[in-house]
Every structure is written in C-alpha cells, then in structure tokens.
Amino acid sequence: MGKYFQPEIECASQEQIRAWQDERLVKQVRHVYDNVEMYRKRMDEKGVRPEDIKGRDDLHKLPFTTKDDLREQYPYGLLAKPLSECVRIQSTSGTTGRRVVAFYTQHDIDLWDECCARAIVAVGGTKEDVVHVSYGYGLFTGGPGLNGGSHKVGSLTLPMSSGNTDRQIQFMTDLGSTIICCTPSYAAYLAESIIERGLQDKISLKAGIFGAEAWTEEMRHDIEEKLGIKAYDIYGLTEISGPGVSFECEAQSGMHVNEDHFIAEIINPVTGEVLPDGEKGELVFTSITKEAFPLLRYRTRDICILSHEKCPCGRTHVKMTKPLGRSDDMLIVKGVNVFPSQIETVLLNKGYPANYQIIVTRVNNSDNLEVQVEMTPEMFSDSISAISQKEKELVSALKAMLGIFADVKLVAPKTIARSEGKAVRVIDKRNLYQG
Ligand code: DLL
C-alpha cells in the first residue's frame, strides 16, 4: 500500500463518496442558480428547479456546459462570486481567439493545490523531496498547479517553468531534483539532453508527473528507461481547475478522479445520453466544491472510459483511462491547445482561400506545426521574394493568434487535394491516441 495525502478522503468508501457528492451537488446547484444568469435561464428553460436536484441521481436533469458557452460568457458571465472575492485567474486559448478565463477564490486555489498534492504523494512525494516544476508558469495552469501542490506536501519546490534546458539540467544536478513535473514531450527531450551530456549519473530523479497532452505507453517506457524513473500521468483542464482533476497512482493503469470535488460522467457525444462504466464516450465534469467558477456538466470533448474496479493502491475514487481521442478537432501542439478554426480565421482575414492543410509531426520529441496554404492565382505570379515575404507575414499573424510558431508554406493554386466529403484539414502524424 502506498502513501496518501488525505487517506480519509482518497480511500473513503463508495457510500461516503456518494454522500459527499449528493450533499455538495445540491448546494452547488443552488449556488449557480442564484448567482449565474446563464444557468438560471437554462434550468428555467428545462423546467428544472434547484430543489429538484436532490443528489447525484438527478445530475442528468441539469444542462450541459460547452466551451462555446465559456466563450460567449467571456469574461465575467459565469462568475458565481463577486470579483472582489477572487484572487486569481488562469486561462487557455479558445476556438476563435477568444480566450477561456477561469476565476478562483482562495478556497478554490486551496482545493486545487490539494488535488495536486494528492498526485505528488501518489508518486512517492514527501517533504524530503525536491519537486522540479517545468510546466509553464503564467496563465497556463500547469506550473501554478503543481507548484501549489508541492507546497502543500512541504517539498522543496523549484519553480523552473519551461525552456532553457541547460539551466533545467544544472538545477536538477546541483539541487538534486527528485520529482520532475512537465509535459511528456519535454520529459523525453530532457532525457535525451541529459544522455547527450553524459549526466545520467548526476541526476537523482525518481519519478515524473507528466500530462497536459496525449502520450503513449511506448513513450512512458522510453522516458522511464532513459531517466531511470517511474513516469506517471496527470490530467486536468483549466475550466475545471487545472492539473490534478485526476492522477495516476502506483498501479499506473488509469487516473483516479478527485471525486470529492468533481463528478465525472461519460456521455454519448452525439446524443448526450449517459453511458455506464466500461463504455467509451465523452468525459463530462461537474465541479461541486468550487466557488468562483463552478461548471455544471462541462463537456471536456476528451474521449475516455470510467472504471470503479478495485485498485491495488487502496484508493477508491473512480478511474479514467488516458484520453483516447477528442470529440472535436482540437490539437495540442507543444502543450498549446490549437483549433483549426483559429488558423482558418487568420488565413481568411489575410485574403487567402480556405484551401489549406495543417500538418503536425513530432521530430526528436518536439512537435512541429506546418500550415500549407494555396495562393490565389494573382499571388502566384509574384516574385519569390514577395512570396517569402507573405509567408513571413502569415507566420507572425499565426504566432499572434496561437502563441506558437507555425511553419507556413504557400503552395500553387489547386495543389491541395480536394475532398468529396469533409475537407481533410488536419494531418496529425504523431499517432498519440491509443485504443
Ligand atoms: O493542460 C492542464 C494540465 C496541466 C494537465 C499540466 C496536466 C498537467 P488545458 O490547457 O486547459 O489544461 O488543456 C486541457 O489538455 O481537455 C485534454 O485534452 C488535454 N490533457 C490534459 N492532460 C492530459 C493527459 C491543462 N494527461 C486539455 N493526457 C484536456 C492527454 C491531456 N491529454
């Protein structure tokens, strides 16, 4: 049996978890009905009164929330507490450039930190550990989330943020980092960089907490072998708090959802019907303890399977598989959420036709985004230097929209294959989703 951060919660009986969920859901529904106009309207339209929700069994009566709702309500529409009680925002990119902004009270930060602390303790973290956080800090939730969790555990926290690999490795060797938190692709890159420098013997890592993007079992084995560590998965999303919505334990076979804070459901993405354990569908979360930004039945678009099977680690909270795909077209490139519609908006605004293709590859564990765009016949007759100037303009417009570099190639008119049905806009050669 492993160690737990909050054993009485993490190993509570199913009945106890259920009782917490029933009680907290009733309170939460009242809170959002009284404070968020969108939910009040939606519930009124469905003819659902807050008092109709007596517990988890009534969850299906509540309306869903989507990323579009978050965009439309930007920035304050879904806020359920006065702004004066909020202490933080975090954010992620939206579909057409509008960002999604999530708000936190101090209570919300505390519960998020606790969820991340559970994840750190589950991989063996204690106050004796040196937790090296190489997720980005800032609006992205990765850095702040694991940082907060590490403080709760009492570990020495290195707020490295991402990038500057030489400095990462220097701190890692000088300060004896024992737990590394970053994206799996960065972990793989770090591993290679450590090997290249011949520093394998100088590092003291024992475990890694990797998430924010899809990764395969092969990648897990590769990282484990190269760094000589155990590699654990962690899942989360800004809308629901950030990393730590669920986390892997020593069994390394799916992630325990922190069910005392988030109720997980799997639905058929087309019909919205709730599916039983073991069936594959879209993961939906209801946050039952958050104050500032509580969402009802938020559709994550991640395709997963839930399981209540007994876990050897002793935790009783439901397990979710790694995301097995998306029910929308969102890509995660270099850890950044990218929607094809964002790219299309840039192209159309700049006067290009909607004939384009987005090609994502992974070279040396680093993602590469290429956008091929057809020129108009007029552009095609331009000089090579004029064309390369146009490519540069598109690179910077895309950088402004997405926040990451995309390689742009302008191609001759009518060279991108036309499709008879749905246009094939995205070619993702990474094969990250399994199952
Ligand atoms: O990526 C939060 C996070 C930070 C999770 C650090 C884990 C570690 P967003 O930027 O809002 O938040 O992106 C959320 O990323 O809906 C999934 O599609 C994807 N995702 C997150 N974790 C995993 C994972 C953070 N372990 C979106 N495996 C989610 C696969 C993941 N996909």
Description:
The chain has 12 helices and 22 strands. The chain is an alpha/beta fold. A hairpin with a 4-residue loop joins strand 7 and strand 8 (242-248). Helix 5 (106-122) crosses helix 6 and helix 10 packs across helix 12. It is globular and about 70 Å long. 5'-O-[hydroxy(phenylacetyl)phosphoryl]adenosine (DLL) is lined by residues 92, 135, 141-142, 211-214, 233-238, 242-243, 300, 302, 322-323, 332, 337.
Number of strands: 22
Radius of gyration: 23 Å
* Head-to-tail CA distance between termini: 29 Å
Main beta sheet strand tally, sense and closure: 9 strands, mixed
Query: Structural class from helices and strands?
Result: alpha/beta
Assign an overall shape: globular
Mean of residue pLDDT values: 94
Percent helix range: 25-40%
Point out poorly predicted stretches. none
Read across the widest sheet, the strand sequence of neighbours is 4-3-5-6-7-8-9-15-14
Which small-molecule species are bound to the chains here? 5'-O-[hydroxy(phenylacetyl)phosphoryl]adenosine
Number of helices: 12
Strand content: 15-25%
What's this, in brief?
The protein is α/β, with parallel strands linked by helices and 435 residues long. Helix content is 32%, strand content 25%.
